[in-house]
């Protein structure tokens, strides 16, 4: 991109932070808008595939002050608590979003990026005549931008304002997250099935573990509270009951998000480059939505830096996004059918146990290559 332009990045998760950092590093005017204030917790698996580690080290975006657990094993439990383990060839590490996002936020500031926190974007409109965006913020402020990166997460008011098709489809999934202290194996990432959902556990920094699950909102409605739903549904898996009864829970209350949706989304809508969960949500066995968000932030920044005009920038981003993520997201949606019911979870456990080649291929094809 030959002329210096103004870029607004909506959403300060991994995709938004990485794209802001890379663009600011090249001297572009970047304004990152995040509705919350750092540091804060997010509903997230907090396992990061090693496909990103070379990039993070190269860009000096890898936190070094923490001893992060190195994860090289995947454990799968059916609804009855029977489990099987398999190696993760590429592997990864555990780190909380509370730590990582705040670290990246500070890096954006170091590069001269402007960050508005505690601010909600109410609307984004593209003016065809002026070839620019107009953004209205809560509180009455307006911004003008040449390019916008949409990194506003799994589900946002902006999705409705932009009339994105997936937002009209109701989802039965709710996401719930805790940090705990337990005797969980710090070299494993685990997925525990229960009726109607599944729970991921992996170690993070400071001897803590992240416990994050997708449950069914009908169960929540039926039992009246998250705690009651957990006792009646999740605890039927003995392994999960052990976590809930024998661990130290570190939050006063869980982090919760409603209506998590795995429907297909488009990487460019209304001329906005969608990145991270705004462009598509990966299912949990794939275990590397964080890595995909980081990679997507990089691709969005590169498209803006390398493209000559809006048409080329959008084309470059669409092409690179689809090349890297489309087949992984599709496979993830198919694999999701292997979770969340008694019979499917038993079948999957036996498949991993007796046909390890299939499990290895599934993991390989839902993870990316180092970049």
TrEMBL record:
Q: Specify the protein name.
A: Dehydrogenase (Flavoprotein)
Q: Which InterPro entries match?
A: FAD-bd, FAD/NAD-bd_sf, Geranylgeranyl_reductase
Q: Pfam family of this protein, just one?
A: FAD_binding_3
| Gene3D superfamilies in alphabetical order | FAD/NAD(P)-binding domain
Any single GO molecular-function term of the entry would be: FAD binding
Limits of the FAD-binding domain = 6-295
PANTHER family, alphabetized: CONDITIONED MEDIUM FACTOR RECEPTOR 1, GERANYLGERANYL DIPHOSPHATE REDUCTASE
């Amino acid at each position: 991109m030959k002329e210096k332009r103004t870029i607004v990045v909506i959403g300060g998760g991994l995709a938004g932070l990485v794209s802001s950092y890379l663009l600011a590093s090249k001297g572009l005017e970047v304004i990152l808008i995040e509705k919350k204030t750092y540091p804060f917790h997010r509903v997230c698996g907090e396992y990061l595939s090693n496909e990103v580690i070379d990039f993070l080290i190269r860009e000096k975006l890898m936190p070094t002050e923490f001893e992060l657990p190195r994860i090289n094993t995947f454990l799968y439990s059916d609804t009855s608590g029977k489990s099987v383990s398999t190696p993760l060839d590429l592997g990864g590490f555990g780190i909380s979003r509370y730590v990582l996002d705040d670290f990246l936020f500070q890096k954006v500031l170091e590069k001269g990026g402007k960050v508005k926190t505690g601010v909600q974007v109410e609307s984004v409109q593209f003016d065809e005549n002026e070839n620019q965006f107009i953004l209205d913020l809560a509180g009455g402020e307006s911004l003008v931008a040449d390019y916008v990166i949409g990194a506003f997460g799994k589900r946002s008011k902006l999705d409705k304002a932009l009339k994105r098709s997936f937002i009209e489809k109701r989802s039965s999934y709710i996401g719930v997250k805790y940090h705990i202290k337990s005797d969980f194996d710090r070299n494993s990432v685990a997925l525990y099935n229960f009726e109607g959902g599944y729970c991921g556990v992996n170690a993070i920094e400071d001897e803590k573990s992240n416990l994050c699950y997708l449950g069914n909102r009908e169960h929540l409605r039926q039992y009246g509270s998250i705690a009651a739903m957990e006792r009646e549904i999740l605890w039927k898996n003995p392994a999960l009951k052990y976590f809930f009864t024998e661990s130290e829970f570190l939050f006063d209350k869980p982090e919760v998000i409603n209506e998590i949706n795995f429907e297909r989304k488009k990487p460019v809508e209304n001329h906005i480059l969608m990145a991270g969960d705004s462009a598509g949500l990966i299912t949990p066995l794939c275990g590397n939505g964080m890595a995909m968000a980081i990679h997507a932030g990089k691709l969005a920044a590169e498209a803006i830096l390398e493209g000559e005009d809006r048409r080329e920038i959008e084309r470059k981003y669409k092409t690179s996004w689809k090349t890297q993520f489309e087949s992984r997201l599709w496979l993830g949606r198919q694999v999701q059918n292997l979770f969340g019911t008694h019979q499917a979870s038993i079948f999957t456990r036996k498949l991993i146990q007796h046909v390890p080649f299939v499990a290895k291929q599934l993991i390989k094809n839902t993870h990316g290559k180092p970049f």
